[in-house]
Design goal:
The structure holds two protein chains of two kinds. Chain A has six helices and 24 strands. By secondary structure, chain A is mainly beta. Chain A has a single domain, classed as TolB, C-terminal domain (Neuraminidase, 6 Propeller), CATH 2.120.10.30. In chain A, the strands form six sheets. A four-stranded antiparallel beta sheet of chain A has the order 1-24-23-22, with no helix packed on it. In chain A, strands 2-3-4-5 form a four-stranded antiparallel beta sheet, with no helix packed on it. A three-stranded antiparallel beta sheet of chain B has the order 6-3-7, with no helix packed on it. Chain B has a three-stranded antiparallel beta sheet with strand order 10-11-12, with no helix packed on it. The chains are: A mainly beta, B alpha+beta.
């Protein structure tokens, strides 16, 4: 029956461009593709700090806390664990997911979130189990506990957020036999019980896009996974809500309250449907979303408030005609942290000897 | 023929005649044959279930891409796909995929959908759970095996199916959508604005 329902959406969803155009209906005319880049204020690097000891040959998931500490997820299976760096790049803690004290399970680490108290919650996929876990660590990196997620079906969680009451908001995908997985979002208790399943407004549309093989959300190498979900982001804000972003352009953001109600839903539009939302960071009452053209690496930073109202649009690393400027210090793709007051954007790059560099940027 | 009794005294027992012996031999052979058949059934079953327990049912963990940097201002994304136990029959190899990201080789997983589809049946791969909201939505709309939707103007839609054909050259899947419905022009009713 699920299959039947999902198939009914396919004709609607074959035309992603029609869908995305409808999303902009009623809005003021969008700036054109080239003007979106060349006509915007720029993000300019104002300070570069070389991490004293830490090196990286690549960067995985990136996050930060309200103190400006940076969290670097594993860049590859060869370098497992999450690193916590200070603002000056010093290593403060390492969260070793594969060697935690419960039965020393080996497995794959997933997305992670930092709670307001500073605890780190990381999704974990044991190598020989279909059960999904959340591992909790104290801010100094010591292992605290594991949470066995018990939704009652097979799934792959994608991103996680932590409410101030200790409940978890997790979005991911549920297995559907022989078809792309279906979006799922739920609130779990601190012991892993599913408390509530959320009905996010666009999930049926997103689901239908995957079913129709829409290349915006499905890759040829992994046709069963829906990247609108698996490549989305999630972060808690000071208003107590958790903001869930889908990997779409224009992107859809839901503000989910601790009781599971969707307080708000809004879109963030780069003005171009080929710029995809690669990172999202929240500070105070502002959300910064980095859009990137994945082939040319054109970049556009959008800052909105918690209602989705636009506060700023910035480009960087580009020349006036939108091409890459090789004569400037680049900020790169690794947008790691956003601070609203004063407004600062932190990027990570690496030096020639692979040492991590923290680059602070401001809008000019 | 003598047989020792409980009291330690041998007593002569009556030897059966030839026809009785042959009858008993026949029964014994039949019993042995049945035992062999039973053992074979048990053995095959055990082998089957043991194989099912160790079934190479996989799926991908497909997180957001990693970033790499290199000399000359190179910057790029690279896949971080990994193997998990999942619902696709076949094998998944962690390092079969390679990506050159700014001069550094990045390995990622490649899965092969070449297993027995029956092997993953025991894993509750989308067979047990039926989402209640979907079921509620279907009430009153279900017409035999096709679905009449007000979104597509009431026309019936055939169920699509996704077929994966592993391409050994590219180490990736070729995706074939079979029974795919003909795209319909969106109408004001079936557009879903964002």
């Amino acid at each position: 029956m699920t299959i039947l329902f999902r198939s009914a959406l396919i004709p609607v969803l074959l035309c992603f461009s029609c869908w995305s155009q409808s999303g902009t209906a009623g809005k003021p005319p969008q700036i054109s593709a080239s003007n979106a880049v060349s006509g915007s204020p720029h993000l300019m690097p104002v300070e570069t700090t070389l991490a004293p000891t830490e090196v990286a040959r690549g960067l995985g998931e990136l996050s930060c806390d309200s103190d400006g500490n940076l969290y670097l997820g594993s860049d590859s299976p060869a370098t497992p664990g999450i690193r916590k760096l200070s603002r000056s790049g010093e290593l403060l803690a390492t969260f070793a997911l594969a060697n935690h004290s419960d039965a020393a399970k080996t497995g794959i680490e997933g997305s992670f979130a930092v709670s307001q108290s500073g605890d780190l919650y990381a999704l974990f996929f044991p190598e020989h189990e279909r059960t999904r876990y959340v591992l909790v660590f104290k801010s100094d990196g010591t292992y605290k506990k594991e949470i066995k997620l018990q939704p009652g079906f097979q799934w792959i969680p994608a991103s996680i957020g932590v409410f101030t009451n200790g409940n978890l908001l997790i979005t991911g995908q549920e297995f559907v036999k022989g078809q792309p997985m279906a979006p799922f979002t739920g609130i779990f208790s601190g012991d892993g019980q599913l408390l509530k399943e959320l009905d996010l407004e666009d999930d049926k549309v997103i689901d239908g896009m995957a079913l129709s093989g829409n290349p915006h959300v499905v890759s040829s190498t992994n046709p069963l996974s829906n990247r609108a979900v698996s490549w989305g982001k999630m972060q808690a804000a000071k208003d107590g809500n958790i903001y869930v972003m889908r990997w779409l352009s224009p992107t859809v953001v839901y503000a989910v309250a601790p009781d599971g109600k969707v307080a708000r839903r809004f879109t963030v539009d780069s003005g171009r449907d080929d710029l995809m939302p690669m990172e999202m960071h929240i500070s105070d009452t502002r959300i910064a979303v980095l859009f990137v053209q994945r082939e040319t690496h054109e970049k556009l930073m959008k800052v909105v408030d918690l209602n989705g109202s636009e506060l700023g649009t910035y480009d960087y690393d580009n020349t006036a005609d939108g091409t890459r400027n090789s004569n400037i210090v680049h900020l790169g793709l690794a947008f790691a942290c956003y601070s609203a007051t004063p407004e600062r954007f932190t990027f990570l790059t690496t030096s020639d000897d692979h040492r991590i560099q923290l680059r602070l940027a401001e809008a000019r | 023929m003598f047989q020792m009794t409980a009291h330690g005294i041998y007593r002569k027992i009556q030897r059966p005649d030839r026809s009785q012996i042959e009858q008993e031999r026949g029964l014994t052979m039949l019993r042995n044959a049945l035992r062999v058949v039973l053992l074979m059934i048990v053995g095959l079953g055990a082998t089957h279930f043991a194989h099912a327990d160790a079934a190479p049912c996989w799926t991908y963990y497909d997180p957001t891409e990693g970033h790499c940097m290199g000399s000359g201002g190179c910057e790029d994304y690279y896949p971080r796909t990994q193997c998990l136990i999942g619902c696709t029959p076949g094998w998944c190899h962690s390092g079969d995929g390679q990506d050159d990201c700014c001069g550094t080789i990045r390995l990622y997983a490649i899965g092969y959908n070449d297993g027995d589809p029956e092997e993953c049946r025991s894993l509750e791969c989308g067979e047990v759970r039926q989402r209640k909201e979907h079921i509620q939505s279907l009430r009153g709309n279900l017409v035999n095996t096709s679905f009449k939707s007000d979104l597509d103007g009431g026309s019936s839609v055939r169920l699509p199916s996704v077929v994966f054909v592993p391409n050994r050259c590219t180490h990736a899947y070729d995706v074939v959508f079979a029974n795919f419905p003909t795209p319909t022009k969106p109408t004001p009713q079936n557009r879903k604005g964002l």
